[in-house]
Amino acid sequence: MRRPIVLGVLLAAGSVSIGIAAMPQAPVGQEARVVDIDKLRDNLYVMKGGGGNSSVFLAANGVVVIDTKNPGWGQPLLDAIRKVTDKPVTTIVNTHTHGDHVSGNVEFPASVEIVTHENTRANMEQMRPNSSAAPSATPPPNIFKENKGRGLPKRTFKDRLTLGAGSDRIDLLYFGPAHTNGDAVVFFPAHRIVHIADIFPSNDMPIMDSNNGGTGIGYADTLAKAAAFVDANADTLISGHNATTTRPADLKAFIQFIRTFVKEAQDAKRSGRSVDDFAASWKPPAGYGATAARVRANTQTIFNETR
After folding, report:
1. Domain presence at residue 180
2. Of 53-62, 89-98, 127-136, where does mean pLDDT reach its minimum?
């Protein structure tokens, strides 16, 4: 269960829910796929539900979508976009490889340009399960292979890429491995807003996905680089799964949460404790959450990386 960070009155973060939902008729026995829409600025929305939060940016010549949710949620997301604009979707940016952020790609028109970090492109070709998945779990289907490569990015970047210009400018930034080895941070300069996605997903323990190049011991250092950029350039953060926008101070507190967990896990290994012993005894500090499975998986990653 995710527990969102509560930051007081949403107007302080510039977020206003406009009470719109895309509600396609669900087949009998299936839950309706609802996309809730929050308006942050006149041309920037956060669309929630069905996986990771999606940002929707209305540029002069078309719509840029950040992340496209779980399988089957691409069309509901498109329906929600049509409720706020009649402009075509021209670009998708996927922040990382996980299925709840990329699977909707295959439901968008083939003409849409898809952009990712170069490592994310490689990860999306494989669609490996994240390292928090139970060993006995059935591997997720590779939606891109099922769709003969449709939805895979054709444009990638290494460190930084700028899309658009002037008030339509969007910067894609890479600070290093954390959640995966291809986590893109998306900056909207005109609004001083950053879509930080799942390197700061909520106030829960994140996935340190070693199956897709993520790291435990390097996670906080990568976040610290992102935080330095945020401090200088942004006031508001869109997290991967949080119910509200957050602030730079929340990111700094999250970094300390991660640093403390990693240090305690490393100390446990060096003192001869086992992964299971440490994971079973560790409890998150007040204000943060963590499932037992996530703690154990991340502890294993940190133990594997610690020499």
Report:
1. yes
2. 127-136
